[in-house]
Write a structure and sequence with these properties.
By secondary structure, this protein is of the alpha/beta class. Helices cover about 30% and strands about 25% of the residues. The chain has 6 helices and 6 strands, in the order αβααββαβαββα. The chain has a 6-stranded mixed sheet. Strand 5 and strand 6 form a beta hairpin. About 25% of the residues are buried.
């Protein structure tokens, strides 16, 4: 059996959606969509803040087609279904995220736990907030403008 682990639909823990709905298998699946990269969004904050952040997904989908999008939050129920993997913030999720290589990681929260977690994320590019010397810090110019607001 051939498994295409680089497909946006491939789960690994359960059969993918095309397999469950159409009975297709990786080997001859016409729904194969190659993952070009992975993007992580960290927005733990208040439920309203998480909802107000979701328009960011439109820009990400346009600029990074075929990228798998992951989102870490306290409120997974409000994250749109277009996100490939939504994780509730807890120890299990942190352990999972530490084992993944992302192309882009975006932390939109400047609280201690989100900023400290950002330092532990493996990513080629990081935007938003990180952590240094016991304090959240901006990682890029856009975060700098929000840092003291």
């Amino acid at each position: 059996m051939i498994y295409k682990r680089n497909c946006l639909y491939f789960r690994g823990d359960i059969p993918c959606k095309p397999h469950k709905e159409l009975g297709v298998h990786c080997q001859d699946c016409e729904h194969f969509s190659e993952i070009k990269g992975r993007i992580l969004i960290i927005k733990l904050g208040a439920i309203g803040d998480v909802i107000r952040t979701t328009p960011l997904l439109h820009k990400i989908k346009l600029e990074y087609p075929n990228h798998e999008v992951w989102w870490l939050t306290y409120y997974p129920e409000v994250v749109p279904s277009s996100v490939h993997k939504v994780l509730k913030y807890n120890l299990d999720s942190v352990l999972i995220l530490e084992q993944i290589n992302f192309d882009i990681a975006i932390n939109l929260d400047k609280d201690y736990q989100a900023a400290a977690l950002m330092n532990r994320i493996n990513s080629v590019k990081k935007y938003g907030f990180g952590f240094a010397n016991g304090r959240p810090i901006p990682l890029d110019e856009k975060a700098e403008s929000k840092y003291l607001n």
